[in-house]
Design a protein that fits this description.
The complex is a heterodimer.
Chain A lengths: L5 E5 L10 H9 L4 E5 L8 H5 L6 H18 L3 E4 L7 H17 L4 E6 L5 H9 L3 E2 L9 H6 L2 E4 L4 H8 L4 E4 L6 H9 L4 H11 L15 E5 L3 E6 L8 H7 L9 E4 L2 E4 L4 E4 L4 E5 L2 E4 L3 E21 L2 H5 L1 H15 L1 H4 L3 E8 L19 E9 L2 H16 L21 E18 L9 E5 L4
Parallel strand pairs in A: 1-2, 2-3, 3-7, 4-7
Antiparallel strand pairs in A: 1-8, 4-19, 5-18, 6-15, 8-9, 9-13, 10-11, 11-14, 12-13, 15-17, 15-18, 16-17
Helix pairs in contact in A: 3-4, 7-8, 8-9, 12-14
Chain B lengths: L3 H4 L2 E6 L4 E7 L3 H10 L4 H8 L6 E7 L4 E7 L19 H4 L5
Antiparallel strand pairs in B: 1-2, 2-4, 3-4
Classes of the chains: A alpha+beta, B alpha+beta.
C-alpha cells in the first residue's frame, strides 16, 4: 500500500442516481483505496427528513450499492456511504442498512459493517439551547425550544472523525446517518496521514461526482488522487473532462462564499488555492488551508409537521377570465373564508399558484405586466387534517369553476381540468424547524457506531 | 445594448441552504470576466432592483477569478419548502439576470 498517494473513487453524485458500468470499471482499474458516496441533501425540501422517507428509489439505490459492495469486498477496500437514505435520520439509515444486508445475503458477501447514527435527541438540543451552545447560520432565524419539541427528527451533519474511528476498528462498510458531504471522502485519507485541508477539499468536489466535469453529470464517476501537496481530479468517462473552470466553478455550487467553506470543526480557506490543468482532462488543486474553529460546531437539521395538503390542477384560456383573475381569486378566497371558520382562524391555508404569470418567482418576479393567452393554476389547501384540506380544496375548485364576474362570456365553466378526479391528496406537509449550529465537546463520542459482523450464511 | 446572457456561459440559481438563494454567473474567458467585473453592473443596488428586494437582503456579491465567476447571494423570500413555496430547490430564480444590461 503506497503512502505517497491515496485514490478515492466517487461513483455517483447521490447514491441511486446511477453511473455507467464502464466508468465504474475504469475507476476500479485505477486501484482506488476507497469507494465513497454521498447519499443525501436537504435540497429536496423538509418533507423527506420530517416524514422519515427516502427521496431516492429503493431499486435504484440497490442497483448502485450492488456494484459498490461487490467491488469493495472483492478488492478488500472500504465502501463508505454518507447521509444514508437522503436525510440521514434513523429510519433512513435503517432503510439503507436493510438494502446493504440484503445485498450481502444475495451476493454471499462477508465483512464488518459499521453503522453511525447521527440523530440528536430533542433533550440534547434543548440543553444546548439552555447553555447557549446554539448558533444561527447566515440569514437564518433564532432557534426556540417550541420548534425543537415539534420536530419529528433531528440530525447532525457528522464530520470525518466518527468514520475514522469506525475504520480504525476494521469496518469494511460504513453507513452514516446525515453527514457533512466531504466526510466519507476525507476519512480514510486523513486516517492515513494526508492533509485534512486537501482531503476535505477533494471530498467537497468528489461528493458531486462528475458534476464538476464538463459536460457535467450527477450520474457518472470521478477519481480523486491525493498526495501530500495537492490532489488531482479526473472524470472517468472519456466523454467528460475536468477543466480548471469546471472544477473551480463547482466550488461555487450551492455555497454562498466560495473562498471560505465552513464545516464541522472549522472551515476550508480557498483564498490561496490554485487550480492547474495537468492536461486536457485532469486538474490539480493545491494551496487549500483548513482553519479550525475554537469550538467544534456541527450543523443540525430538523423538520416539523404543519398539516396535510390537497391540490387541484387546472388551466384557463378565456381572455376575460385571465384579465380579471386577481379579483376572481380574491372573490373565491372570500367565499372560502365565509364557509370555513378554520380558514378565518388561520388553521387552514388556501393558495393559488398562477403559472404563466408569476407561478415560479412570485414576489421576486420583475415581469409583472404580462398578457398570457393561457394560464395554469394549482389550487392548494393545507389544513390540520387531510379531510379538512380535501374539503377546502374541493370547495375552492368548484367556486372558481363557476365564479361569475363582470364580462364573463364562457358561462359553462372557467377551468379546464386535465384529470378526473381533479383533486390530489398530497399527504403530510413538513417545514424546516431547525437548521442551526451546535457546539459539541467531542465529535467522536457524540456519534458512537454499531459494528456488525456479516457472515456468509452456510 | 448587450446583456449578461450575451457574454456569460452559465447563469444559474440554487439554494445555499434553506435560508439563502445563490446566483452564479460564469464567463468564458478572463477578458470577459474582468470587463463585466470592472463595469460594476452586478452590484447590491442592481440586484435589489432586479428582484424588488430590500438592499439588506442582498447578502453578498463575490468576484471569484479562479472560476471566472461572479456570485450573488440573497436572502430567500421564504425558508425553502415553507407554505407558499414555488421553487423548493431554488433552481429557476435566475432569469432576471439574463437581461441585465452591461456596458
Amino acid at each position: 500500500m503506497s503512502t505517497d498517494v491515496i485514490r478515492v473513487l466517487s461513483p455517483t453524485a447521490i447514491l441511486g442516481y446511477g453511473f455507467p458500468v464502464a466508468s465504474f470499471e475504469d475507476g476500479l482499474s485505477r486501484n482506488p483505496d476507497v469507494i465513497a458516496v454521498d447519499a443525501g441533501s436537504t435540497d429536496p425540501g423538509p418533507y423527506y427528513l420530517g416524514a422519515g422517507v427516502s427521496f431516492t428509489d429503493r431499486q435504484a439505490v440497490k442497483r448502485d450499492l450492488e456494484y459498490l459492495l461487490i467491488a469493495g469486498r472483492s478488492r478488500k477496500i472500504p465502501v463508505l456511504i454518507g447521509s444514508a437514505g437522503g436525510a440521514g435520520a434513523r429510519p433512513h439509515l435503517d432503510w439503507c442498512v436493510d438494502i446493504v444486508k440484503e445485498i450481502f445475503e444475495e451476493q454471499k458477501l462477508s465483512g464488518r459493517l459499521a453503522i453511525i447514527p447521527s440523530d440528536i435527541s430533542a433533550e440534547v438540543v434543548l440543553e444546548a439551547l439552555e447553555e447557549q451552545r446554539i448558533d444561527r447560520v447566515p440569514s437564518g432565524p433564532e432557534l426556540f425550544s417550541e420548534a425543537v419539541e415539534a420536530s419529528t427528527f433531528i440530525v447532525a451533519q457528522i464530520g470525518e472523525e466518527p468514520i475514522m474511528a469506525a475504520l480504525e476498528k476494521g469496518a469494511d462498510v460504513v453507513i452514516c446517518g446525515r453527514s457533512y458531504d466531504p466526510s466519507v471522502f476525507a476519512a480514510l485519507p486523513i486516517l492515513r496521514g494526508f492533509s485534512r485541508a486537501l482531503a476535505l477539499h477533494m471530498g467537497k468536489i468528489l461528493e458531486c461526482a462528475a458534476i464538476a466535469a464538463i459536460p457535467g453529470s450527477g450520474s457518472d464517476c470521478m477519481l480523486g488522487t491525493l498526495d501530500h501537496d495537492g490532489f488531482v481530479l479526473e472524470a472517468l468517462n472519456p466523454e467528460r473532462a475536468c477543466t480548471v473552470t469546471s472544477v473551480a466553478a463547482h466550488t461555487l455550487y450551492e455555497k454562498s462564499d466560495p473562498r471560505l467553506l465552513p464545516g464541522p470543526g472549522g472551515a476550508l480557506d480557498l483564498t490561496d488555492c490554485r487550480f492547474e490543468a495537468l492536461d486536457d482532462r485532469r486538474v490539480r488543486v493545491t494551496g487549500t488551508r483548513f482553519v479550525p474553529t475554537q469550538d467544534y460546531f456541527i450543523k443540525l437539521e430538523g423538520a416539523r409537521p404543519i398539516g396535510y395538503r390537497t391540490v387541484s390542477i387546472a388551466g384557463a384560456r378565456s381572455p376575460d377570465f385571465i384579465e380579471a383573475l386577481d379579483n376572481i381569486l380574491d372573490g373565491v378566497r372570500q367565499q372560502v373564508r365565509n364557509n370555513f371558520p378554520e380558514v378565518q382562524e388561520d388553521d387552514a391555508t388556501l393558495l393559488f399558484h398562477v403559472y404563466g404569470r408569476n407561478g415560479v418567482m412570485q414576489a421576486l418576479e420583475p415581469e409583472t405586466k404580462v398578457n398570457p393567452h393561457e394560464i395554469g393554476l394549482v389550487i392548494e389547501a393545507v389544513a390540520k387534517t387531510q379531510a379538512s384540506a380535501n374539503t377546502i380544496c374541493s370547495f375552492a375548485r368548484s367556486s372558481l369553476l363557476h365564479f361569475g364576474y363582470p364580462g364573463r362570456l364562457s358561462t359553462a365553466g372557467n377551468l379546464a381540468f386535465p384529470y378526473s378526479p381533479s383533486d390530489f391528496q398530497a399527504g403530510a406537509v413538513f417545514q424546516f424547524s431547525i437548521y442551526h449550529l451546535m457546539v459539541i465537546a467531542d465529535p467522536v463520542s457524540r456519534f458512537p457506531f454499531e459494528l456488525l459482523d456479516l457472515e456468509v450464511a452456510s | 445594448m448587450k446583456t449578461l446572457k450575451d457574454v456569460a456561459t452559465v447563469i444559474r440559481s440554487k439554494n445555499a441552504g434553506p435560508y439563502e438563494l445563490t446566483f452564479d454567473v460564469l464567463f468564458p474567458d478572463i477578458t470577459t470576466y474582468e470587463r463585466v467585473v470592472e463595469s460594476g453592473v452586478v452590484n447590491a443596488q442592481s440586484v435589489s432592483q432586479l428582484y424588488g428586494i430590500p438592499l439588506e437582503d442582498v447578502k453578498g456579491i463575490i468576484h471569484f477569478a479562479p472560476a471566472l465567476a461572479i456570485k450573488v447571494t440573497i436572502k430567500r423570500p421564504r425558508v425553502s419548502g415553507n407554505l407558499g413555496e414555488s421553487d423548493v430547490y431554488g433552481a429557476q430564480q435566475h432569469a432576471p439576470f439574463l437581461t441585465l444590461a452591461i456596458n
